Amino acid sequence: MTFSSFVTTKEISHRAYLPLHCPRCVIELPANRTLVMGVLNVTPDSFSDGGRFYTPDQAIPRAMLMVEEGADIIDIGGESSRPGGMPVSPQDEINRIVPVIEKVAKQTPIPISVDTYKAVVARAALDAGAQIINDITAMTSDPTMLPFAAKTGVPIILMHMLGTPLTMQTNPQYQNVISDIINYLNNAILNAKKAGVKEEQIVIDPGIGFGKTLSHNLTILHRLSEFLHLNRPILVGVSRKSFIGKILDLSVEQRLEGTAAAVAISVLKGAKIVRVHDVKEMVQVVKIADAIRTSS
Question: Cα–chain-centroid distance for residue 40?
């Protein structure tokens, strides 16, 4: 499946989607506003925060701070998906995230997404109060994930990744990076619908940094508007990624301004949700970018 690269400015600026229906809330996706998803890694080996929020005593205050700073969604994960990252057992993942999800869900109405590709973990997370499933494998890793997602009816995020976190950065190659990713995501959408997932509950993510070179990442961001042809809300995660560090020659802790630039461009190119670590700063970036994007 291929798409024309021509997308009008009006299509980027005035694209609205049906709301995402969660078990306990509705997430509006209006044309004039981009949502901010705050990242909470309950792991000892995250690339971005090095285990700073590994325990519930660390993670819960962090989640509540992101809510105060304006996050629309909190994305909680218990397994690092950094390049070279090793998988953990489902039980370890559950033990890490469930106590955090339970407490955060009781303290705020802000929806929680669970960052996992394992159905058993997703089930435990939803039982604890999560309302969205964010799967970096586009629900291809666990054959029981799509049927589970369809049964629950929760919104799902389907991301493109080439390989696995352990192998994805080992010489990633594409025939055509944009066409290949669009075709992959289109097939993922079709498979989800065949399993019984409602199309209006699907969000797509091109997977910046997941099996991509610096050049691939820049091309995806430059041509992000082409993904609008899939007619699903686009989530983009550029926060603190290595491509920013390569361009600026800066460590993870020094990539705030680079992240801000990439987030602003993502919004202008059609992203509907941006996944970020620095919520307070990126909420401000998104507000400015939205104002420019929707101006007449």
Answer: 12
